[in-house]
Design a protein that fits this description.
The complex is a heterodimer of chains A (about 140) and B (about 160).
Chain A: E1 5-11, E2 17-24, E3 27-34, E4 40-41, E5 53-57, E6 63-70, E7 73-80, E8 85-89, E9 96-102, E10 108-115, E11 118-125
Chain B: H1 4-18, E1 23-24, H2 26-35, E2 38-43, E3 47-54, E4 57-64, E5 69-71, E6 81-88, E7 94-101, E8 104-111, E9 116-120, E10 126-133, E11 139-146, E12 149-156
Antiparallel strand pairs in B: 2-3, 3-4, 4-5, 6-7, 7-8, 8-9, 10-11, 11-12
The chains are: A mainly beta (about 140), B alpha+beta (about 160).
Chain lengths: ~140, ~160
């Protein structure tokens, strides 16, 4: 692996995918690997918006949530790997996002925020935005062409 | 009713312009805010583990998101241990924790039904700093510092 560093691991519930942050040549980018082969899988929407941090995967890996840089702001996004779409989750006004956690079914997200110098956690319902990705659901390796 | 109609119209227009938005779990968020500082959330299906600051020290808390209540986790928190990172499985049954105890970082697995805590052995040259438990509770991904580099170790669990 040379001088590449890996951190912030997240496993899909079915154990087939591992998301993590790869630090290479000064860049922190999210990578997605099939397990146990280690084969890298493409992510359509996240290139060019590094640094990334705090990835999370849903049960079958349909959804990859991550924090990414957009201009001067860090924003939480969810890539729907089945539909090839990107959903942006705006942070509450005046707060910066530090970490996130996505529920295994993709129906809830928790954001760790810093606001007024204090760390706090807020929870959001995504059930109106994302279809559930439940245990035993469709296996997703490569996104559709 | 007179006040409600314009408010409803404004909400509809806003939603129409911006598309669907994530909905804050307001009651739960208010409760979390009142509890003080929180960090490192980890969601299960109806559970959330997090590290909460309370009485000048940090401890792991497990919340039932449906009932919006903390769930007892006897034996998980020790007054002489500092929690670093926590992760729950989908059912809030297993919790993995990186904690600092006696100047050393260690990974432990908590089984709620048994109220048991099990030390997870790590390589001697590794310092665990972050943990992610697979939703079925059967595998751990541990971020470790080894020879000055961040790396990820995968650990199968019984």
């Amino acid at each position: 692996m040379g001088s590449e560093q890996r951190r912030d691991p997240a496993l899909s519930g079915n154990g087939r995918l591992l998301a993590s942050i790869s630090d290479r040549q000064g860049r922190s980018s999210v990578i997605l690997q099939e397990q146990p082969s280690g084969r890298l899988l493409p992510l359509r929407h996240l290139r060019g918006h590094s640094p990334h941090r705090s990835p999370a995967l849903s049960w079958n890996g349909r959804y990859l949530a991550v924090l990414m840089q957009q201009g001067m702001q860090t924003v939480a996004v969810v890539e729907d790997r089945l539909r090839g779409q990107l959903l942006r989750l705006p942070a509450p006004a005046g707060a910066s996002v530090e970490r996130l956690s996505l529920a295994p079914d993709g129906q809830t997200v928790a954001l760790q925020l810093v606001q007024g110098g204090q760390q706090r956690v807020q929870v959001f319902d995504l059930s109106g935005l994302l279809e559930p990705d439940r245990a035993g659901g469709q296996r997703i390796s490569d996104p559709p062409p | 009713m007179k006040l409600l109609a314009p408010a409803l119209l404004a909400t509809t227009l806003l939603t129409g312009c911006l598309g669907p938005m994530p909905i804050p779990r307001s009651g739960l968020n208010r409760q979390l805010e009142q509890a003080g500082g929180n960090r490192d959330p980890s969601l299960g299906l109806r559970w959330m583990a997090l590290i909460q600051q309370r009485g000048g020290r940090e401890q792991v808390q497990l919340l039932d998101l449906q009932r919006q209540l903390p769930v007892p986790v006897p034996g998980l928190n020790r007054p002489d241990a500092l929690p670093i990172s926590v992760s729950t499985d989908a059912n809030g049954e297993r919790l993995a924790l990186v904690r600092q105890l006696g100047g050393r970082s260690e990974v432990v697995l908590y089984r709620r039904a048994l109220q048991s805590l099990q030390l997870i052995p790590m390589a001697s040259d590794s310092i665990p700093t972050q943990v992610s438990l697979r939703a079925d509770g059967r595998q751990l991904a541990v971020q470790v510092s080894r020879n000055g580099l961040w790396q990820i170790d995968l650990v199968e669990l019984p």
